Amino acid sequence: MTYPIVGMVGGGQLARMTHQAAIPLGVRFRVLASAPDESAAQVVGDAFLGDEANLDDLRDFARSCDVVTFDHEQVPTAFLRALEAEDVVVRPGPDALVHAQDKGVMRERLAAIGVPCPRNRIVADPADVAAFAEEVGGWPVVLKTTRGGYDGKGVWVVRDAAGAEAPFRAGVPVLAEEKVDFARELAACVVRSPHGQAVAYPVVESIQVDGICHEVIAPAPELSEDRAVEAQRIALTIAGELGVTGHLAVELFETRDGRILVNELAMRPHNSGHWTIDGAVTSQFENHLRAVLDLPLGDPRARAKWTVMVNVLGGDYPDMYHAYLHVMARDPGVKVHMYGKDVKPGRKVGHVTVCGDDLDDVRARADHAAAYLRGSITE
Amino acid sequence: MTYPIVGMVGGGQLARMTHQAAIPLGVRFRVLASAPDESAAQVVGDAFLGDEANLDDLRDFARSCDVVTFDHEQVPTAFLRALEAEDVVVRPGPDALVHAQDKGVMRERLAAIGVPCPRNRIVADPADVAAFAEEVGGWPVVLKTTRGGYDGKGVWVVRDAAGAEAPFRAGVPVLAEEKVDFARELAACVVRSPHGQAVAYPVVESIQVDGICHEVIAPAPELSEDRAVEAQRIALTIAGELGVTGHLAVELFETRDGRILVNELAMRPHNSGHWTIDGAVTSQFENHLRAVLDLPLGDPRARAKWTVMVNVLGGDYPDMYHAYLHVMARDPGVKVHMYGKDVKPGRKVGHVTVCGDDLDDVRARADHAAAYLRGSITE
Question: Which positions fall inside the ATP-grasp domain (chains A, B) (predicted)?
Fold first, then answer.
């Protein structure tokens, strides 16, 4: 066989959906998973069980692959440097990936390359947070642990110095950011290959509930062409300047006074790009694979006027399969994507996608399907 | 887990693509394959190695699944009846499947339900073939072994009694059919579920070269609405009358004098439906899974004005992966589907799909990509 082996570290739903994209490409796809019942390990023919926090396991896995990539950003930079020193091809590489792992490094670098961000600085203690609040015009301020946060974890909105103590208990540096008065959240997703080709997906609107992505609308409604191009340019600049290979999601604030500010980065397929499986000519997963293999990238354009993705979170009702009967009979056009994960309240266990011409209709259909699967509505 | 396990007998590309469709549905998918390097066994997490021609292996596999289905029609009817007697759920069941396994049984049944077919009858020997030729107005006539043929194998076009000897050597009954003066070949694909719901895909034109499908155009160009509805009705009638569960492909002749005649049946996902992966709201693979699980069926409508699928056959050049560089750089919109099979001349090793508004452009792009992958063109 002349087809290369792509190894993805992590066995979550992103690896699962990347496997789905790897099948038609004919490339070999292997995951490093911690257990056989992990989301991706259930479906990937070539699941390698091991502990990614153990350098020996990671090395054994990496040596069996032509290129190594990731379904999350938790692998320590030192491990990735060790692999690179042994001629493992790591994409994105540690020099890029650190910006998605450490929010302090990310903010410093984005400032250096002139990308607009909320005002921010590392803070030493609650008193320093109070000083920062004064610098940016008052409370509340946002505190983030520089490492280890995701889906709303590791983020605090604090209203006074007394409330600013919890973030310091994790023992990692804490970043303070101004609380941006945003009109909405956007995401600009791009994919960049080692030889420098890049493609930009349509800019989407992302609606969060309790810090977790609830809904993504592609393209972002009523976003001006200028604003969309500005958001795509920001993402392409970051990808190029940081040397990203693969998919880069740039989460953005659109402020009430008309500015675009960078909130977070993710260097891997991302929830804000799940709509592309059904809604774009080339999905984020396929383009991530093409990029890490240094193949020419696929067309990122939308296939429908509107595509809406709604996450399915775990609710109180564990049997989502039974709910298929109603959801599929009611709407033969809804695309269901389940991740093979046990249902736990608030856990992302799947998503649904609907494409169409009428945004209100498309949103209502996607919302209904997700809510019914969760069990929060019963008709 | 409350998700059912679907078992597919056979490890070819149809099982591989069904796996791809099973991932988002969240259902468990298992294949019975003969070797770990078979097309589907490479990618399916849950590949069961065994010999489908051995009833014990088949039974062990089937008992581990909630429903059993097929990526080909080679499993003996007696084995399927044995499984059903042991309460295995087999879809399609042996009473339906026999019509896709035995062309003699199929022709007799289609005549009984009034579906138009080429004139045909079982023939005893070359002299009887000559008699049949006289009955239908002269040579040539088409001879087919009633069992075991596919992709042009088991089919002969004979011009005299002397040329009619080969088909009888296989030791199975031989069916003679008039050589239809067809304008083109069409395919009508439908999916039917156990509770009787059915959906019909747009009727496609299928272009064969040397008895092997080369290209499928969806929808069939310049097919009148009446003719399309007639073809869909024929397929729905067959599915209902024969009790098909799952995907049914009905290969049709459109004659020069304006009739639609049934050529062949396949009760599984079929090459004439590969275009649906990229070109329809719900692919044939997803709808086959939904049907065998008795879930409501998905929308079969096309997503683009035109979708063209061209098969990639093995050529003289074994390294198709290297050809990706040119194919993907030249056309970021072409969808490549490779099956993980070693390249052998004439073997189906993949397909490409292009969607768009201009049929000539779409056909040219798909043809170019397939020819370049095969190695029959170099620029």
Answer: 107-293
Architecture of domain B5-90: 3-Layer(aba) Sandwich (3.40)
Reported confidence tier of residue A209, pLDDT bands at 50, 70, 90: very high
* Class in CATH terms, A119-178: alpha beta
Contact residues on chain B for A336, CB-CB shorter than 8 A: 24-26
ipTM: 0.96
Supply A133's token pair: 């609040």
Hey, is the C-beta of A317 within 8 angstroms of any chain B C-beta?
Answer: no
Q: Which two tokens stand for residue A227?
A: 């604003």
Contact between residue B333 and residue B326 where contact means Cβ atoms under 8 Å apart: no
> Please, what's the b/e burial string for B229-255 (b: 16 or more CB within 10 A of its CB; e: otherwise)?
ebbbebbbbbbebbebbbbbbbbbbbb
Find out if CATH 1.10.10.60 is the number for domain B182-374.
Answer: no
> In chain A, pLDDT over 70 holds for what percent of residues?
99
> B16-60 pLDDT, tens per residue?
999 999 999 999 999 999 999 999 999 998 899 999 999 999 999
Q: What does the domain layout of chain A look like in residue ranges?
A: 5-90, 119-178, 182-374
Q: What is the pLDDT of residues B358-367, one digit of tens each?
A: 999 999 999 9
CB B246, CB B294: distance < 8 Å: no
Q: What is the pLDDT of residue B152?
A: 66
Annotated binding site of A for ATP: 103, 144, 177-180, 185, 263-264
From the candidates B23, B289, B311, B354, which should be mutated to test the interface with A, based on the most A CB atoms within 10 A? B23
